[in-house]
Design goal:
The chain is α/β, with parallel strands linked by helices and about 190 residues long. It has nine helices and seven strands, in the order αβαβααβααβαβαββα. It has a seven-stranded mixed beta sheet.
Length: about 190
């Protein structure tokens, strides 16, 4: 049986999904399933992840994929990605992302992305995350690729949850995908 998230990606390419995870074991299972489904669909996979977690993901992938299939997975260290300018700066992050996906676009390769968003403390100005997520949502629609943004649930204050629900049209909850009503409302207000 096909999961709802995979069915959604088959039905449309421009899908921006929020995933608030609780347990690292479940997180790794979700990202590995996402990668595996993407490769089976013929996509290249861009994983923005920290080194420690990516090592665990890679170990699991080696048990499920061939060496040829593993060549479709491209890892970007999430610390380098989010702090390429020395701080969490949306224009620098977008520039880094554009440079990273450029080869896929130039070669007409389909791709999907998974971004693990994490930070050292909640002292970061959360409005910056909102700015970045709005830009990323536009890029997903413009370039027509699936993206899951993963955040650790217990580190999300209510204000951040509200921002993320307004900037992601879909939410992944275990193996189910729901439409974010807050996203729809924000877009109706804009129009």
């Amino acid at each position: 049986m096909k999961s709802k998230i995979n069915q959604l990606f088959e039905d449309q390419r421009n899908v921006h999904v929020l995933y608030a995870y609780n347990e690292m074991k479940d997180y790794i299972e979700q990202v590995v399933n996402y990668i595996q489904a993407g490769i089976l669909a013929g996509d290249y996979i861009l994983i923005i992840e920290n080194e420690r977690v990516y090592h665990n993901i890679q170990n699991e992938l080696k048990t499920r994929l061939t060496k040829e299939q593993l060549k479709f997975v491209h890892h970007v260290n999430n610390f380098d990605f989010y702090y390429s300018s020395g701080s969490y700066h949306p224009p620098a992050i977008v520039d880094y992302f554009n440079k990273t996906i450029q080869p896929y676009i130039e070669n007409n390769n389909t791709f999907r992305s998974w971004a693990h968003v994490e930070w050292a403390s909640m002292k970061e100005p959360l409005h910056i995350i909102e700015d970045l997520e709005k830009v990323i949502d536009e890029a997903v629609n413009l370039l027509s690729f699936p993206l899951i943004c993963a955040y650790e649930a217990e580190r999300m204050p209510d204000y951040l949850k509200k921002i993320l629900m307004e900037t992601h049209p879909y939410v992944l909850i275990e193996d189910d995908v729901i439409v974010s009503e807050q996203y729809k409302l924000m877009n109706e207000v804009k129009n």
